[in-house]
Amino acid sequence: MAISFPSTEYFEALKAQMAANEEKFRRLGFIDTTFGVSVGVNGKARNFVLEFEVFDLKNVSEVPSIDLKKVDFQIEGDTRVWREMIENIRRNGEADSSHDINTLAHFGEQLKIVYDDPDGHDKLYRFMESIQEFFDLSSKLEVSFN
Amino acid sequence: MAYLSTTDFTQDKDFIDKWLYTIRTGEMDLSWMKSATEKISPEEANPRRGLTYRDLNVGTYGYTDIPEKVRNNRSYAPRGAEIPEGVPDAQPWVSRKSELWAFNTESYYEEAVSRQWNATTDIPWDRLDGVELPEVTGKALSQLMTFLTEVEMIATDTPAMWLPRLNPDFIEVRAFIAAQAMDEARHAEVFRKRALTTGWGLMQASPINEMALKHLRDADSFSEMSVALHLVAEGNVLTLFRFSEYLSPTDVDKKIFRLVMQDEARHVGYGMQHFKYVLEHFPEKREVLHAHLDEAENISFAGAAATELTEAFIILAGGGLKKENIEQGIKVTTQFNLKQMQEHFERLDKCGMPERRERSKLYKMYEMGRAAAENAGIKLN
């Protein structure tokens, strides 16, 4: 059954995939960061907080708004961009060179990285490959977009 | 031979007699078993993570209570061990905690060890089979890789040369610095490998950038080295790696830049946490660090004059040498240069040096560049 995006269920499904692919994430190393994902839908935003610890996504929660002081950084973008990224991952098995997180976010034109503390911002890059591989697990999911 | 033993043991009759006596009788001394050291039972705070340096932060073995000035250990005795008479003075240059400590030092090291990767086997080099970039793009990519190899060799030497100068009581910092040297050696390796797989060989070394990088090696203190290396240089290089990932012509290059940026961001993280620590615990250092930043920022700005690098970026960003390619390349490269400067000042603000913007000539250049970019219709975030 397809999992709806954006939703807590989508991130929970990625969490389950991350656990199922533990060897890969152990090889990539510790990932200790809490970040927000904000998806713009019809002028409103649905916001999620993802807490990673050691090799795992420890917790996912949907929140009314993201307090930038409580997360390292936030990735935000319109649902159109997220959808294009996820569909690209599903087509290729991983994001192609035009759809990885850094490329989409680099100049803030597609996705945007917002943060309160530059040290928190830098955690996106400290754990870049793990975060990219995490989103690439979307290739293993059936995803629907409302 | 810079150091000679104070005794020639092969000619020391007492020593030889004692050695032969032990062989003959089996009689043992065992006084070391009475070492007056603390007995502890460290435990893993999180079994999934394993036994970390933080888990060993207990009693006399811990780092929390290291005094600001370490006077009682100038040898290689591990922190917490009994130090008998006769250990030599290793003459460490840095025995003051605030000169090198960083908040969360131990976790940066654990992260470094956990996130090591292998330039030989973790990069899908086979995906380059059959990839032929246009000559201009291929040469620009090789020039970028040539420059980065040069950068990373100096970035390997700089932390490595400080290692033996750090008091061994700061074992966690020493471990982090050793891991950094390994990271930088791997970066030099991966960039050299990528340069040579472009099919164009290496391109040209960069006099201006080498001059800039030499400044990193020649700092007068660890803190000055750290501010120049970890904060200024690696901060700039982190932005450069993200930019290079964005521009990468193949997914192999993307993978390379994603992996190197992880290491670089960790080094910047240590640099920020050290900078905060030194400003809080050694306030007299503030003016010295300002003076060192004056020089580091001047040299950082001079990097823009390295045409062999800037032009390679413009070509990669614009996709070629046609007029429209160059216009696009200059626009994107300008955005990148200004982003480097913006992020530099954001980091200094957060570390507790917001007055830097007032004093810094680089900040004035940033404002000038930003105004010129806006006038040219270049959008900035």
Walk me through this protein's architecture.
The complex is a heterodimer of chains A (146) and B (381). Helix content of chain A is 39%, strand content 29%. A 5-stranded mixed sheet of chain A has the order 4-3-2-5-6. A two-stranded parallel ribbon of chain A has the order 1-7. Chain A contains 6 helices and 7 strands, in the order E-H-H-E-E-E-E-H-H-E-H-H-E. The relative contact order of chain A is 0.21. In chain A, strand 3 (44-53) and strand 4 (56-63) form a beta hairpin. The N and C termini of chain B lie far apart (58 Å). The mean pLDDT of chain B is 94. At the A-B interface, helix 5 and helix 6 of A face helix 2, helix 6, helix 7 and helix 10 of B.
Give the number of helices of chain A: 6
Q: How would you name the CATH homologous superfamily of chain A?
A: SCP2 sterol-binding domain
Q: Which ranges of chain A are low-confidence, i.e. pLDDT below 50, for 5 or more consecutive residues?
A: none
CATH top level class name of chain B: Mainly Alpha
Number of strands of chain B: 0
User: What is the CATH superfamily of chain B?
Assistant: Ribonucleotide Reductase, subunit A
CATH topology of chain B: Ribonucleotide Reductase, subunit A
Q: For the largest interface in this structure, which chains are involved and how many residues does each contribute?
A: A-B, 29 and 38 residues
Stated plainly, the CATH topology of chain A is called Nonspecific Lipid-transfer Protein, Chain A
Query: What are the segments of chain B in which pLDDT stays under 50 over at least 5 consecutive residues?
Result: none
Number of E strands of chain A? 7
Estimate percent helicity of chain A: 25-40%
Spatial ordering of strands, largest sheet of chain A: 4-3-2-5-6
Second rung of CATH, namely the architecture of chain A: 2-Layer Sandwich
Strand content of chain B: under 5%
**Shape estimate of chain A:** globular
* Radius of gyration of chain B, in angstroms, nearest whole number: 25 Å
Shape of chain B: elongated
Number of domains of chain B: 1
Structural class of chain B: mainly alpha
Q: Given the helix and strand composition of chain A, which structural class is it?
A: alpha/beta
